[in-house]
């Protein structure tokens, strides 16, 4: 089992949903990219952890809820003080992300559900708008505790 196996199908779903003009990146894609040189507009897909939901350790079974963030990144320096231009550019991309993922179930997982996310932010001319998602995986193993 690959614990992060959902990354590839989620990325593919986002790429199809946001169109060719918006790039979709995962953490390895962004490794080494300087803050001021990152491509935009883009959607960053980031694994943000898990929590056990249910299971039976002796039976080799667990339900795990994973959290994924989709962070819309745009660079727009017009109206920097208000951020209006950047928000206007990020809004339709956010809509496409939500339309792509909300209720969609990656193979082997439950439907993606929207979840609480951190605040949007500005940095070095970029506007970042995070949207958080959860999904659940059923994990089974052949290993069972012996009595």
Automatic annotation (TrEMBL):
Pfam families: Phage_tail_terminator. This is Uncharacterized protein. It comes from Guyparkeria halophila. The lineage of its organism: Bacteria, Pseudomonadati, Pseudomonadota, Gammaproteobacteria, Chromatiales.
